[in-house]
Write a structure and sequence with these properties.
Layout: H1 36-45, E1 53-57, H2 61-64, H3 73-80, E2 86-89, H4 91-97, E3 105-109, E4 111-112, E5 125-126, H5 130-135, E6 140-145, H6 152-169, E7 173-177, H7 187-199, E8 204-207, H8 213-218, E9 224-227, H9 234-246, E10 251-254, H10 256-259, H11 264-277, H12 281-292
Parallel strand pairs: 1-2, 1-10, 2-3, 3-6, 6-7, 7-8, 8-9, 9-10
Antiparallel strand pairs: 4-5
Helix pairs in contact: 9-11, 9-12, 11-12
This protein binds ribose-5-phosphate.
Ribose-5-phosphate binds near residues 57, 60, 255 and 256.
């Protein structure tokens, strides 16, 4: 095991202005050597024209129940479909409330096992097996990981077993970086967490935005999508989205900042402008304001 002393010193060079050296001909970072099926599914997530994605996260119910804004999945989700690329949800929500002809990518939440009524959120299991992910035509399987928390080992075991199954059947794995209430939200932590997940085989990673985000992206050999997090005023959420894309994210996986907005449809449309059309945060907010008058 390498000597860990010296790891704290900021003496690293991330070459943030040098493009990924192994891009090859495929538009998704780190995927050039993958098989056709994997690439097809990654193309259902990351638009081949822009390389980016708008994911809509509505998997909150798996541990929070009917969270505000998602009381009626059957009403909310269809209204947002024109503005999103990928649906991130549980198998229960997908089968009951999402039209099977939506034409959208699917990020299937496969890890679960905790509830907000029991303060043990860092322990999960793989709750959906690979056969059901195949039946649902999932474009990736999302596994929550808890680096630096009590459930670290079991969550990385969940991730590794999902990667093993995914590689067998051509389904990418989305590694999700969780942050607990007592966990740091620093570039040091997110560099550690994203790199661990990529080296364990995750094909794409969901994490949070922070300072020096471009270094996190540079050091991570697979694409990063940024989590929305708790509800912010719309203008601030657009700034988060804009800074994330400027920092090298390949998209947003946003939940509450869309479905808890006063105008969820217009909010999703504005985020799409930032992700796929190069709008600044100010331009997107102007668009949002114009369309909600
Ligand atoms: C967290 O990683 C889970 O996937 C969440 O349920 C969800 O993605 C959170 O989305 P948001 O923080 O944007 O509401």
């Amino acid at each position: 095991m390498p000597d860990l002393q010296g790891q704290e010193k900021d003496q690293k060079n991330y070459h943030v202005n040098t493009p990924f050296a192994n891009q090859g001909t495929f538009h998704v970072k780190g995927a050039d050597s993958l098989d056709w099926g994997m690439k097809t599914r990654l193309s259902n997530i990351f638009d081949p024209k822009t390389g980016n994605t708008v994911m809509f996260a509505f998997d909150h119910g798996y541990f929070m129940g009917s969270v505000t804004g998602l009381e009626r999945l059957d009403i909310v989700i269809p209204s947002l479909l024109p503005h999103i690329d990928v649906l991130m949800g549980t198998r229960g929500a997908l089968r009951t409330c999402v039209p099977p002809n939506s034409g959208k990518g699917v990020a299937l939440r496969t890890s679960s096992g905790s509830s907000m009524l029991y303060d043990d959120l860092s322990h999960e299991v793989v709750a959906v097996d690979i056969e059901d992910a195949i039946r649902l035509n999932a474009d990736c399987m999302a596994v929550q990981t808890f680096i630096g928390a009590d459930g670290q080992l079991s969550s990385l075991d969940n991730l590794s077993r999902t990667v093993n199954d995914g590689m067998s059947y051509g389904i990418p794995t989305l590694g999700v970086v969780a942050v607990g209430k007592d966990m740091e939200r620093t570039d040091r932590f997110f560099k550690l967490a994203t790199r661990i997940l990529a080296e364990l085989g995750a094909n794409l990673i969901k994490t949070y935005y922070c300072d020096k985000f471009e270094e996190i992206v540079a050091a991570c050999p697979v694409p990063i999508v940024v989590a929305g997090g708790k509800k912010l005023p719309e203008a601030e959420a657009m700034t988060l989205a804009y800074h994330s894309m400027q920092g090298g994210a390949r998209g947003l996986d946003m939940g509450r900042n869309i479905f808890q907005s006063e105008h969820p449809v217009q909010m999703a449309a504005a985020i799409r402008k930032i992700v796929h059309e190069g709008f600044t945060d100010k331009e997107a907010f102007q668009f949002y304001t114009d369309t909600t008058r």
